[in-house]
Amino acid sequence: xxxxxxxxxxxxxxxxxxxxxxxxxxxxxxxxxxxxxxxxxxxxxxxxxxxxxxxxxxxxxxxxxxxxxxxxxxxxxxxxxxxxxxxxxxxxxxxxxxxxxxxxxxxxxxxxxxxxxxxxxxxxxx
Length: 126
Fold this sequence. Notes:
Layout (H helix, E strand, L loop, with lengths): L4 H23 L8 H19 L6 H23 L5 H25 L13
């Protein structure tokens, strides 16, 4: 297990998504985040930055592919949440799924990067 600056920076970026989201749920707004569109834009921008920071190595192997799936899904959800942010309960649900997908993608990518999950087994050649 090796943790480097990429892991720490990605963790900070994801924390910078989750903390305002929790505050947004509790108070209805946060500094610089006044509505669902602002929360979606924040999550989308910081989520993309976290993916760039962790690099390609985090998306190799079986678990890396799963992390990549959640990263791409969260990007799509972020765009949809940003565009549909004026539809009340729908936008709140989209934000919840968006933040959840970002956290799952980050968790899986970190497990791959720090090698806490074994790489994919290779089939024996007979």
